[in-house]
Amino acid sequence: MKETDKRGKVIALGFFDGVHIGHGALLRQVGEVASQLGAVPAACTFDTHPESLIRNSPTPLLTTPAVRAELMRRYYGIQEVIIVHFDQRMMRMPWREFVTEFLVREHQAVHLVAGHDFHFGYKGEGSPERLVSLCQELGLGCDIIPKVEREHITVSSTYVRSLVAQGELERAAAFLGHPHTLEVTAEPVPGGLTLGLSVQELRPAPGRYEGRLTVGTHTCPVDICVTDTITCQTKETLTGTAFLELLRRNTGS
Which of 71, 84, 182, 218 has the fewest Cβ atoms surrounding its Cβ within 10 A? Predict the structure, then answer.
């Protein structure tokens, strides 16, 4: 068993789409508390947006689970990302059971961190107030983080999605705290690459963008063209799963 498996976990709760600066407030708190307790800084997210199953309609996402995990590790030092399969069983799990059985018994939670608007469990019956009360009952630590604003706008994944959909990548980065990042599948074509998105990922507005493409440990700058497909010009020969950072939209595109 790994050493980190023997320690308790301080776990941030949420979906964390995009891993924006509002999420960052939770993740920084996780890091601080974990350091104080000698615990593992962790986060819990889902593979599918709960609304997609509840409403039986797909929710376009900023990030795949793999990108969320990478961003949390890279920018906030989160050591363990628990990616939960959101299915009918999870959707119907009572809120108390989610805490006592899933987070505490299965994942050794000793302290939980959630946002001011976090709801969980069957029919969203779990609330920040109920979470605080249950943590007190169980002898767990708990922090509820207030909303984060920028330019008098509440930072949210919904707002960042609207920016990405309009091609406002630099403004999106200001609310994210980092470049917007996609998980893509790179396939060589004459003069460059075609980049495939997962069915979940939100496609940026049509146009030309500057970006960075990372495959494994290798990163290279790329010029990206978004139409019905996504292509990029590069002399590099790259293939397979990659992370694509969209830095800015080219002027006049």
Answer: 218
| Closest alpha carbon to 98 in 125, 133, 79, 68 | 125
Asked whether the predicted pLDDT for residue 4 surpasses 70, the reply is no
Least confident of 100-109, 161-170, 199-208: 199-208
- Using H for helix, E for strand and C for coil, what is the string for the chain? CCHHHHCCEEEEECCCCCCCHHHHHHHHHHHHHHHHHCCEEEEEEECCCHHHHHCCCCCCECCCHHHHHHHHHHHHCCCEEEEECCCHHHHCCCHHHHHHHHHHHHCCEEEEEEECCCCECHHHCECHHHHHHHHHHHCCEEEEECCCEECCEECCHHHHHHHHHCCCHHHHHHHHCCCEEEEEEEEEECCEEEEEECCCECCCCCEEEEEEEEECCEEEEEEEEECCCEEEECCCCCCEEEEEEEEEECCCC
CA torsion, ordered 186, 189, 192, 193, to nearest 10 deg: -20
Q: For tokens 């109920």, what's the residue?
A: 130
Q: What is the pLDDT of residues 205-235, one digit of tens each?
A: 999 999 999 988 889 899 999 998 899 887 7
6, 29, 43 from 38: Cα distances, Å: 11, 14, 16
Distance (Å, rounded) from C-alpha 59 to C-alpha 96?
26
Lowest mean pLDDT among 112-121, 149-158, 237-246: 237-246
Length of the chain: 253
| Selection from 31, 37, 30, 63 nearest residue 48 by Cα | 63
Please give the Cα distance from 35 to 83 (Å, whole number).
Answer: 22
Radius of gyration of the chain (CA): 19
